[in-house]
Amino acid sequence: MAQTIGVVGGGAWGTALATVAARAGHEVILWVREPEVAEAINSRHENSLFLPGVILPDSIRASTDPQTLGAADILLLVAPAQHMRGVLTILAPHLKSGAPVVVCAKGIEESTGALMSEVTSEILPSHPLAVLSGPTFAAEVARGQPAAVTLASKYQTVIARITEALGQPTFRPYGSTDVVGAEIGGAVKNVIAIAAGIVDGCELGENARAAVITRGMAEILRFAQSRGAERETMLGLCGLGDMILTCGSPQSRNMSLGRDLGRGRSLADILGERKSVAEGVYTARVLANIARERGIDMPIVQAVAAILHEGQSVQDAIEDLLQRPFRPELQG
Ligand SMILES: NC(=O)c1ccc[n+]([C@@H]2O[C@H](COP(=O)([O-])OP(=O)(O)OC[C@H]3O[C@@H](n4cnc5c(N)ncnc54)[C@H](O)[C@@H]3O)[C@@H](O)[C@H]2O)c1
Ligand SMILES: O=P(O)(O)OC[C@H](O)CO
């Protein structure tokens, strides 16, 4: 059944998800922050700022006006994690009562340590919530290339409704009831992808990168356990799947940022030339603090945070990791 899908956030991923909804036959309202993005989408059917080179379906209409979202039956929340609270606070009074909301951003709020589902439930308590997360580079999804995602909600009816609305042969949601688990993989893998990029930039070799990915997965599992997430969730699309994608390709903004750091560039220089968000930069610091406070062993996350935010050199951080005591592989 054709519905109206509202997409909050006109970056690359919001725009790609708008194409998914449009291909499924829905009317799509894309709420964007930048007037020039709205103008380009409505007049030329292209988001030339954040997703250049992809011609968008006519049924996507972009607007900067929060009131336009009042027509949406389902809302996809795709603002960057550090801006989600502010954006939802502005939009909340305009949304259709009880419309399901789907968290599609990947990150942890720096100022509170909250996951995006927690931020969303706080601001939109009467909207049933789902989380969509998995290995998905926006450009590939926007071009209609096949992808699969985890779609998690406490409510089977919400999973069924969103799956029916967005599911198609080239965009395959797999249902789950582990909401927190679905978020953790997507948020933490961005930090591990920066580490994998550093390994690449420093030319430490493929073996070292595989080691960082696997030991990074152990850190994800430890953090997930501390938050009551299910281990199996972390081995699914939103965990292992996204680690394989993001840590293995410089198409990832996080991985490529790490690679540039490994090649000796400064964080300020790298960020200064980008319009797009690398969520791992912000999640690294808050995650490292949470892990330290709760006694969760996350040495790779600590190393990335120290490089990004505490002025530790890449070489010293690598040396510290290599000098850690030997231990059993499966220890907690
Ligand atoms: N790009 C992808 O391939 C992809 C895939 C899956 C998930 N995600 C996640 O989606 C989320 C959005 O990323 P993206 O890739 O769509 O963004 P992007 O990097 O393409 O664009 C940046 C976005 O940030 C917004 N922004 C900048 N400053 C802002 C502010 N002060 N307040 C509110 N918004 C502001 C811009 O309007 C724009 O929508 C992130 O959490 C990201 O991890 C991205
Ligand atoms: O480009 P990145 O590093 O933000 O990764 C994009 C998606 O999260 C990959 O699933």
Automatic annotation (TrEMBL):
Reactions mediated catalytically: sn-glycerol 3-phosphate + NAD(+) = dihydroxyacetone phosphate + NADH + H(+); sn-glycerol 3-phosphate + NADP(+) = dihydroxyacetone phosphate + NADPH + H(+)
Binding residues annotated for NADPH, in chain numbering: 13, 33, 106, 138, 253, 277, 279
GO molecular function: glycerol-3-phosphate dehydrogenase [NAD(P)+] activity; NAD binding
Residues that hold NAD(+) according to the record: 9-14, 138, 253
GO cellular component: cytosol
Gene3D superfamilies: N-(1-d-carboxylethyl)-l-norvaline Dehydrogenase, domain 2, NAD(P)-binding Rossmann-like Domain
Active site: 189
GO annotation terms (biological process): carbohydrate metabolic process; glycerol-3-phosphate biosynthetic process; glycerol-3-phosphate catabolic process; glycerophospholipid metabolic process; phospholipid biosynthetic process
InterPro entries with a match to the protein in the record: 6-PGluconate_DH-like_C_sf, 6PGD_dom2, G3P_DH_NAD-dep, G3P_DH_NAD-dep_C, G3P_DH_NAD-dep_N, NAD(P)-bd_dom_sf
Superkingdom field: Bacteria
Domain Glycerol-3-phosphate dehydrogenase NAD-dependent C-terminal: from-to ranges: 178-319
The keyword Lipid metabolism is annotated on this UniProt entry: yes
Metabolic or biological pathway: Membrane lipid metabolism; glycerophospholipid metabolism
Pfam families documented for this protein: NAD_Gly3P_dh_C, NAD_Gly3P_dh_N
Entry binding sites for sn-glycerol 3-phosphate: 106, 134, 136, 189, 242, 252-254
Binding, substrate: 106, 253-254
Enzyme class: oxidoreductase
Keywords, ordered alphabetically: Cytoplasm, Lipid biosynthesis, Lipid metabolism, NAD, NADP, Nucleotide-binding, Oxidoreductase, Phospholipid biosynthesis, Phospholipid metabolism
PANTHER family reported for this sequence: GLYCEROL-3-PHOSPHATE DEHYDROGENASE, GLYCEROL-3-PHOSPHATE DEHYDROGENASE [NAD(+)] 2, CHLOROPLASTIC
Entry function: Catalyzes the reduction of the glycolytic intermediate dihydroxyacetone phosphate (DHAP) to sn-glycerol 3-phosphate (G3P), the key precursor for phospholipid synthesis.
Family, per entry: Belongs to the NAD-dependent glycerol-3-phosphate dehydrogenase family.
Entry protein name: Glycerol-3-phosphate dehydrogenase [NAD(P)+]
Organism in which the protein naturally occurs: Govanella unica
